[in-house]
Amino acid sequence: MHKKYRGSNRAIASLALCALATQPAALAAPPQPAIRQVQIVDEAMCCAGCARKVSGQLYATRGVREVGVDMKSRTLTVSLPEPTPAMLGQLWHAVEKGNGTPTKLVTAEATYTLVRPESNTADQIASTDRPLVIAIDNLHCQGCASKIAGQLYAIKGVTKVSVDRERGLLFVESSRAPQLSPWTFIEAVAKANERPLAVSGSHGELSIEWVTAAAPKSHQQAQQPRTGGFQR
């Protein structure tokens, strides 16, 4: 009887080990997202105090893991998981919130460069009455323009979207003053699975240089209007 009892214990232990061996996925830690780096040039970062203020705002941005500072080149290197267009806009505005003056943002996919308008108050006030202009990479057809317009109309304050497909441009009118952030429109274009080349308005011109060429498209273009507006 004693030997049978010990044998039963061994059988139970063996079954338990087999069960553990057949469930590695359940016990394994979930895969961690890859960490990417984004570089931001801040023209106003001239001292350690400036760097601390800007870094503090970046660390307060959700998802940021680490912030490196190179005072010589006035560049911040931000480590975080996959940076979406919305996240890039948050990083840019975090630098501004820290009293920084971002002029360039670099990712593995693209370089974003802002050229601000000259400090002429009269011209800046007049520019707020003009439509914001978005240049699109390979605005292939009216269907593409309509998809982008749909995302733009989802932005609070946008009142009218017009297209000039010949030049690959969309014109956006807004009731918001001052004008909305250019990053809001970059995000909208990305949601339509398209690529912006520049966003111009009262902020100046935020241009985007992509590392790779745009993928070819095969939509039909015949007999499609090249200019006009989109209704809500």
Automatic annotation (TrEMBL):
Superkingdom of origin organism: Bacteria
Signal sequence coordinates = 1-28
Record domain HMA: where: 36-100, 130-197
Q: Which SUPFAM superfamilies match?
A: HMA, heavy metal-associated domain
The entry lists its GO molecular-function terms as:
metal ion binding
- Keywords, A to Z? Metal-binding, Signal
**Does the UniProt entry include the keyword Amino-acid biosynthesis?**
no
Q: Which InterPro entries match?
A: HMA_dom, HMA_dom_sf
Please name the PANTHER family in this protein's record: COPPER TRANSPORT PROTEIN ATOX1-RELATED, HEAVY METAL-ASSOCIATED ISOPRENYLATED PLANT PROTEIN 23
Please identify the protein, giving its name as recorded. Heavy-metal-associated domain protein
